[in-house]
Design goal:
Chain lengths: 792, 437
């Protein structure tokens, strides 16, 4: 746990870390144990021939000290003094005696895991989606736009078709196409797909003085229906839960015309022109409202996605990665809710999913608007004769895809048992679906016997997509083509092109940067005027786009994350950070601050995250560098301490204040490492602007780091820090380890003592190629089953 | 029951109208102890396009009156019936009479300006206030003693799949129209879906437990702990579901399967909706319901009555067209039969846990957006009331002199003990609620 997750970064409650208290005069428990106890009890308390019993139990330290004091060493009890006994007790308690220590010392193993929440949502979406046409998104961005004369969207009245980059139009009193449309009466339809990169609750807004409606994903019912203009409302808002790494069908219609009875013949006088505008905005979780950007729109069609929005309890992330290794009553109930929701959705859409009836779901652009499509009355449409058989076949395929392998005879029989002619077809189907969705074969990874090749396929797909194998992987599994490392690597490379893989790698990088937790980034408005919610939101977009650019660039070079001297800025950010860009500019790469920037390390979003409301925080930055980038295991702070208030020391720089507060020896155990790392970023203030002075004094951005091999590295400023980290063995190891855990969700140590080092060597050999590292990780982990591991 | 400080508050909290006051005060046995509040209910049924006044309104005023042809299906309920002639929808402003007739019928307030153009007048949007059914629902839901699962249910029959001023009668607030549910299967799912789903789930949990057991046998001892923990949760759920399974079976009605939402199935759909409505009252899912049959300007073709023209089209025919008058009389009689069926079902159903029938505790209101189809008048809006729910003095034909219908809306609220002094446009409320007791 980072100090930041424990303590919110708010000025009034910010905490600094204190080291554990150690006094030179105290006896050394480890040393004493070694000399006085180990000969009988063994170096790790494992016992010896002389004394077989393992040193483990539930006594407290005080009790242990008492026992030691009175009975040990056996040859000369009472020869240890109080302090010595206590030191030994403390040492063995921490090292191996206590329950926690035993747990820590347990050899790593691949644990049985259920689907994580993320995997659950993806899996259910993809199982249902596998019965629909796959959505393919090309490189073109924007939306298909059709402009119509008059009040209805009749094909013969369409005067223009084009791609619009987004929906953000101020028509004024004019027509959008002056020579072809009457400014008083026209309508527009935009169609395409919405590309979603984050899972969560989205808020959509239609802003117009006239009438408009929005369909998203579900094409039968508008998400926002403001087709009746009524009163003075000009903003219409709805929220919808969306899952990342997917494209959702989207349609927006706008009309400036009246509806209802056509009285244009009665009113000869031309109405006075009124202004009009049409804007489609969205608000992502933790972001500010913005026009849906072009990069999230594609002018292509998309199949409906089944979205499971049932709330689940959060997964355990105490090891730094999400693990499905615990269950709870709440989780079990959530899986029930979700199973019922999914079964109802499937039954409601079964004719389309089984192909009994063509889904009239997507309004065919140009053939009238969705409300005119007759979607009613599927109740007693001529019933397909083989309906019952089709339902059963569907249930079997559904189970196969949900279980990620061909069904055993027993599993097949269990599904077939749900189908009896005494109940109606829908009830039979629903029973079968509920059975599948509550089954451990669906909810858990790798349970029950199935061919190894299918397990490899599933490990690959969960590793890169957090979801089930696609048709191609399943086919490779069926043909036994997931046997060699080359075959697995080839699949992994192919799979990286999928948006779900992009989401997974992006989320890993955000967690590597400790940006995956919600931070309150609001700053002191007096000190940082203009640092608005919008700026914070743009900064988040900027860092995510930067990560994306580097990972998906040709070289995918990890070092570029640290060494790039460019920032991605839009017009709004450029203005705040003193860069010359047009106000409306979209995100562009800009070289700023005369080459003093160092990739993510000095990215204003990161600098802002690891800062107080009014001042930078070398401690938070140092902890981030030590724990995240260098992978050091710092102990959590033993005690919460508020930072020295800057007002009390008006003459001191931030660096001086931090030094003053952490000067005591007991602080320096950890702060001796943390502070000198954090100080190197002092040239960037609490909102990430470059500075060379603070309080009239030049910034001292020098720092040091002692590597684990004992070498002391001198660093001055962010650039030197970045160069050091880019070539640091420790940083590489931390990156490899964290990526492994993020993708595989099992401890890397469970895959053999040398696996991590091996991966790191390959990472170095590849020129620090992050995509290749992902492929290597999967090539290593995918063939390894839990069962094989258990037998080791 | 909340602490009540005096008799008046007690009566107010009981939700009884002033009409029942003497009744209560004269009954010493109705003490505070063991008093559960009587369940009062309201149903508003709508049919469109005005009526044929000559075949609708009784000539007489008072307790002795003869039912004309259209109202004759209500003969069995004549003693429990109030016919209110002379109430007018006086709301003006944007929108044509169909639109205002519909949008102001239960709201009593103007429509917002908007983009929906009617056959005449200026275009309009939605109503600028909530409807009386929602006002009463909100009142009942505020109080734990009258709160129900849904509060109100909005039923429809053959309402076009189109949201505009002509298709919406109920409003949760200004610009907040409520879409009626006109698919009985959808309404069924809303009322009983969760219960049915849980029952279905219970039937497969045995197999799930079996499956977990088998899987547990194949994993290591360390991993087995996780599955065993999971199994206890599944068992707990199975036990919980089984204990409620029997009660579930009793409460859930059955629907005829496969009834398509199309014109000729309208009688069947109407009956299904009415049956569901009555059932939802038995289960106390709601105390307020609306039943909107088609919409303003509705065009059903009542071929089952031998009428092949659409209703709205026919309603424009002049009074001189005897054939049209005859057909419109038949159409309205059919609507009255539906209303009478609703009354009959409620009368036959005993009040669960109480005295009398559901009808004794329910007020039914049948209304229309127009007084007369071919004149599009908003005067003499049909209001026929049946049932004892609000303790009005029933068995009468009353004739008012062009009073604003807002006053009736006020009476409905007051009948629930919700003593508001204005509803909708306050200009039409100055005289307070109608005295119907």
């Amino acid at each position: 746990m980072t100090p930041h997750s424990r303590y919110p970064l708010v000025a009034s409650s910010v905490i600094v870390l204190l080291g554990t208290v150690t006094f030179a005069a105290e006896p050394d428990g480890a040393q004493l144990y070694k000399t006085k106890c180990a000969s009988c009890h063994g170096p790790q308390g494992e016992g010896t021939k002389k004394y077989m019993a393992r040193l483990e139990g539930d006594h407290s330290v005080a009790k242990l000290a008492d026992i030691i004091q009175k009975t040990m060493p056996e040859s000369a009890p009472g020869t240890l003094d109080d302090k010595e006994s206590k030191a030994i007790a403390e040492y063995i308690y921490q090292a191996f005696y206590s329950r926690i220590a035993r747990e820590r010392n347990r050899p790593a193993r691949i644990e049985l895991a259920r689907l994580t929440v993320r995997q659950y949502r993806n899996t259910i979406a993809d199982v249902v989606g596998s019965f629909r046409a796959p959505t393919r998104i090309g490189n073109e961005r924007g939306l298909k736009a059709e402009y119509f004369k008059g009040r209805r969207m009749r094909p013969q009245e369409r005067v223009e078709q084009r791609i619009d980059p987004n929906i953000g139009f101020q028509f004024g009193t004019n027509a959008p196409i002056p020579d072809k449309l009457d400014p008083a009466e026209f309508c527009i339809r935009w169609t395409g797909a919405l590309l979603v990169e984050h899972t969560g609750e989205y808020e959509f807004t239609l802003r117009t003085e006239h009438a408009a409606r929005l369909w998203l994903n579900d094409m039968r019912k508008p998400l926002i229906d403001a087709w009746v203009k009524s009163g003075n409302d000009t903003e219409y808002r709805e929220t919808i839960y969306l899952v990342a790494g997917r494209a959702y069908a989207l349609q927006v219609e706008y009309t400036k015309a009246k509806q209802g009875v056509d009285d244009s013949n009665k009113n000869k006088a031309k109405p006075k022109p009124v202004a009009s505008s049409m804007t489609l905005l969205w608000k992502l979780p933790h972001r500010s409202r913005e026009i849906v950007p072009t990069r999230n729109l594609a002018p292509t069609s998309a199949s409906e996605v089944y979205v499971c929005g049932v709330p689940f309890p959060a997964d355990d992330k105490s090891y730094g990665w999400e693990r499905g290794t615990t269950v709870s009553k709440e989780w079990d109930e959530a899986t029930t809710e979700a199973a019922i929701d999914a079964a109802n959705y499937i039954v409601a859409n079964i004719d389309e999913l089984t192909g009994i009836r063509r889904g009239g779901r997507r309004p065919n652009s140009g053939l009238g608007n969705p409300s005119q499509i007759n979607l009613d009355g599927n109740k007693d449409e001529p019933v397909a004769k083989d309906r019952a058989a089709k339902f059963q076949a569907f249930a079997l395929s559904f189970a196969e895809r949900a279980y990620r392998h061909p069904l055993t005879a027993e599993q097949k029989a269990a599904i077939e048992r749900q189908f009896t002619p005494t109940r109606d077809d829908e009830t039979n189907l629903k029973r079968a679906l509920l059975l599948v969705l509550k089954s451990p074969h669906f909810l858990y990874r790798e349970v029950g016997a199935s061919a190894e090749s299918y397990e490899v396929a599933a490990r690959l797909s969960f590793g890169l997509w957090d979801s089930i194998p696609d048709a191609e992987l399943l086919s490779a599994a069926a043909r036994g083509q997931l046997a060699s490392p080359e075959q697995i690597a080839r699949q992994a490379e192919r799979m990286l092109a999928d948006p779900r893989a992009r989401v997974k790698l992006r989320d890993f990088l955000l967690s590597w940067l400790k940006l995956d937790e919600g931070h309150d980034l609001a700053k002191d408005t007096k000190k940082f005027p203009g640092f608005t919610e919008e700026i914070i939101s743009d900064l988040r977009t900027s860092i995510e786009l930067f990560l994306h650019d580097v990972v998906w660039s040709e070289s995918s070079d990890y070092r570029q994350l640290l060494l790039s001297d460019e920032l991605l800025l839009n017009g709004r950010l450029a203005k705040f950070y003193g860069v010359d860009l047009p106000a409306e500019a979209d995100f562009t790469r800009v070289k700023v601050d005369a080459g003093k920037r160092a990739g993510v390390l000095t990215h204003p979003y990161l600098m802002t995250t690891f800062a107080h409301a009014g001042e930078s925080s070398p401690i938070h930055r140092g902890v981030f560098l030590a724990r995240g980038v260098l992978g050091l295991a710092l102990r959590p702070p033993p005690e919460a301490v508020a930072p020295l208030a800057p007002d009390l020391h008006p003459d001191l720089t931030t660096r001086e204040r931090v030094n003053l507060q952490t000067r005591p020896a007991q602080c320096m155990t950890c702060h001796g490492v943390i502070n000198p790392l954090g100080f190197t970023l002092e040239q960037f203030d609490a909102v990430g602007r470059f500075r060379d002075q603070e309080k009239g004094k030049p910034i001292d951005a020098t720092g040091t780091y002692q590597t684990r091999s004992g070498k002391v590295v001198q660093v001055n400023g962010a650039r030197e820090l970045a160069k050091f980290l880019a070539s640091s063995d420790e940083a590489h190891a931390a990156f490899v380890e964290q990526m492994f855990h993020a993708l595989v969700q099992q401890p890397v140590r469970a895959y053999g003592a040398t696996t991590q080092a091996e991966l790191q060597r390959k990472f170095t050999d590849s020129g620090y190629n992050m995509r290749k590292l992902a492929v290597e990780i999967l090539t290593t982990a995918a063939p390894r089953s839990r069962q094989a591991n258990a037998g080791r | 029951m909340p602490f009540v400080s005096n008799r008046r508050e007690f009566i107010r909290d009981l939700g009884l109208s002033s009409a029942s006051l003497p009744f209560i005060l004269n009954l010493p046995s109705l003490g505070f102890a063991n008093q559960t509040r009587r369940k009062q209910r309201l149903v508003i049924m709508f049919s469109p396009n005005g009526v044929i006044p000559d075949n609708f309104w009784p000539k007489e005023e008072g307790e002795t009156f003869t039912l004309k042809e259209i109202l004759r299906p209500l003969e069995p309920f004549q003693k429990q019936m109030l016919v209110l002639h002379g109430l007018c929808d006086k709301v003006r402003g944007d929108g044509d009479n169909h639109m205002r007739g519909m949008g102001c019928l239960l709201t009593g307030i103007e429509l917002f300006p908007g983009n929906i153009q009617g056959g005449s007048h200026t275009p309009a949007g939605w109503a600028s206030g909530l409807s009386i059914d929602q006002e009463i629902k909100n009142f009942l839901q505020k109080d734990p003693a009258t709160r129900t699962r849904f509060g109100s249910l909005e039923f429809g029959v053959m309402v076009p799949d189109r949201a505009d001023t002509w298709t919406r009668m109920c409003y949760a607030g200004p610009n907040k129209p409520i879409a009626p549910i006109d698919d009985p299967y959808q309404m069924f799912a809303k009322l009983y879906g969760k219960t049915k789903d849980r029952a279905l789930l219970a039937s497969v949990l045995d197999e799930v437990t079996e499956d977990l057991k088998k899987v547990s046998a194949t994993v290591s001892a360390e991993d087995r702990r996780l599955l065993e923990e999971h199994t206890t949760f599944v068992r707990d759920m199975e036990r919980d579901l089984k204990s409620t399974a029997t009660t579930i079976e009793h409460a859930v009605p059955t629907l005829d399967p496969g009834v398509k939402r199309e014109n000729d199935r309208m009688p069947q759909i109407t009956k299904m909706q009415i049956d569901l409505l009555v059932n939802s009252f038995v289960s106390d899912f709601a105390r307020v319901a609306t039943l909107q049959i088609t919409n303003s300007v509705g065009q059903p073709k009542m071929r089952w009555l031998g009428i092949n023209e659409g209703h709205h089209e026919l309603s424009h025919e002049p009074d001189s067209n005897a054939k049209a008058v005859e057909k419109l009389t038949k159409i309205n009689t059919w609507y009255c039969e539906q209303f009478a069926y609703l009354a009959k079902r409620l009368a036959e159903t005993p009040e669960p846990g109480g005295a009398g029938s559901l009808l004794d505790n329910t007020l039914l209101v049948w209304t229309n957006e127009l007084g007369k189809g071919n004149s599009h008048t908003l005067d003499n809006i049909p209001f026929v009331l049946v049932g004892g729910g609000l303790d009005f003095k029933m068995g009468r034909s009353l004739k008012f002199r062009r009073l604003p219908h807002n006053r009736l809306l006020l009476s409905l609220a007051h009948g629930f003990g919700h003593r508001i002094d204005r509803f909708g446009n306050p200009d039409f409320c100055t005289q307070g609620p109608l005295n119907l007791s």
